Structure formats: C-alpha cells, structure tokens
Amino acid sequence: MNTAIIVAAGSGSRFGADRPKQFLELAGKPIIARTVLIFEASPMIDAIVVVASADFLEETEAVLAKEHLTKLRAVVAGGETRSESVHAGLSAVPEGTEIVAVHDGVRPLVSEDEIERTIRAAAEYGAACLTAQMTDTVKVVDGAYVVGTLDRRELRRALTPQVFSYEVLKETYNEAVLGEAVTDECFLVEESGKKVLSVAGSPRNIKITTPLDLVIAEALFAAGTEV
Ligand code: C5P
User: Fold this and answer.
1) Which residue, by CA, sits nearest to atom 11 of ligand 1?
2) Which of 37, 51, 135, 220 has its C-alpha lying 20 to 30 A from 71's C-alpha?
C-alpha cells in the first residue's frame, strides 16, 4: 500500500495572512484541498494522512469534508517543526503501508506524473526526492560580503513529494534527532548514510510561502500543465 502524508501544520508566519496559508484559495478552492485532490486522483496512492496544526484540526477536517475524499484515512495534529509533523503523520499511516510519500500541503501544483515517477524510484531504491535544477547562480554571503560562488551544475532545489519505503523512514525517524535545522526528510535519510535517488521535477511545482508565490500559482494554474 502507498500512503501520502500531506503536511500542513505550519503557521504560515512568512505569508503574513491572519490564518495559515493552506486555507487561502487558489482558483476558488483552499490550497490544502487542491493539494489533497491531486493525491486522491493519483492511481499510485491508496491512502492519505493529513497533518494539521492542533489549532486548525477542525477547520482542516471541515475543508476536506467538502471534497468527499475516498482515500483520506486520518487528519492528525502536527508538531512544532516540519519533521515532528511528518513523524506524527507516520504514526497514523494505515497498517500495510509499504511506501510513504511526504508532500507539502502548500504545493498544489504537483503533477500526477511527478508523484508516479518519485514513487517508482523509491520503490526500487528505498528513497527518492523530487528535485529541480537551479537557474540562478548561488552565492555564499558573510554579512554584507559575497564570499563564494557555488557550482550550480551540482545543485538542485528539493521539491516534494519525497518518497521512502516505510521501513527506511521509520528506521530513520527512530534514530534521528529532530530540530529546526531538519527542513526535509531526505536530509535525515542522507545523514543516516542511505542513498536517495534524485528525480527530475518541474519548476512549476512551487511551494506557496509568500503572497508573491500565490500570484505565481494562480497564473500557473490558469495557464495549465503545458507551462
Ligand atoms: O516551513 P516550510 O515552508 O518548510 O513548510 C513546508 C510544509 O511543512 C508546509 O506545508 C507546512 O504546513 C508544513 N509544516 C508542518 N509542521 C510544521 C511546520 C511546517 O506540517 N511545524
């Protein structure tokens, strides 16, 4: 069984709205509903667990109830950090889960093809991360000064889903020390010495973090999948 853990327990403080950004609408539907619907439609996904902040658990359930989802198994409370929220989601996956796809609730433009290719890679190699190429040159700064330039040919941006065999993720979390510095699950798996396959994703699969991202997401949604 393949289970998606969709994490949406962030406060959205960088967005500056009065409620978490996952409840803002994208093309007339809450962002979290748009994201969950893509996983609901994916033939590669059997079950979905949504992680919401304890303060917005009921609102999340109410938003999702409107979509008549058949794969939603649980809406659970998250933690202080993203990795703690994933851990909470992992504790709620249905028995028999062999593959876990962790996805940000605020990435509503992920494609079914990206989900499928990342799951297939993880099923074969144990762990896979959807990534996108860098188009900018990346600088290292120290205070006011540029002190270095990274070789962008070997850099990728980490997108989601990040997909793992259940055993790999469970084992990693059992051994991991969680904290603010852990911003994705692949980091934990990399640190444990296991290989993570990089799967080419689309720059269209943006994370809605700021008001600018929402404007871009509306435009991308309207333009359709050809962009
Ligand atoms: O903070 P960041 O932008 O990395 O958040 C990515 C995703 O992780 C978002 O969907 C957010 O809701 C989720 N998250 C979470 N629990 C936290 C922090 C973030 O589920 N404590």
Assistant:
1) 10
2) 220
Q: What is the mean pLDDT of the chain?
A: 94
* Residues 199/117, Cβ–Cβ less than 8 Å: yes
Is 3 near ligand 1, meaning CB less than 6 Å away? no
Cα 57 to chain center, whole Å?
A: 18
User: How far does the centroid of ligand 1 lie from the alpha carbon of residue 9, in Å?
Assistant: 6
As beta bridge partners, residue 132 has 157
Number of domains in the chain: 1
> Relative to the CA of 106, which ligand 1 atom is closest?
10
Q: Which amino acid is at 200?
A: A
CATH code: domain of residue 154: 3.90.550.10
Domain that holds residue 21: 2-223
Residue 201, pLDDT score: 97
Compute, in angstroms, the gap from residue 7 CA to the centroid of ligand 1.
6
Q: How far apart are CA 96 and CA 13, in angstroms?
A: 36
**What value does the CA radius of gyration of the chain take, rounded to a whole number of Å?**
17
Q: Is the confidence at residue 127, as pLDDT, over 90?
A: yes
Q: How far apart are CA 9 and CA 22, in angstroms?
A: 9
Cβ–ligand 1 contact at 209 (below 6 Å):
yes
pLDDT of residue 183: 81
Residue pair 52/74 in contact by the 8 Å Cβ criterion: no
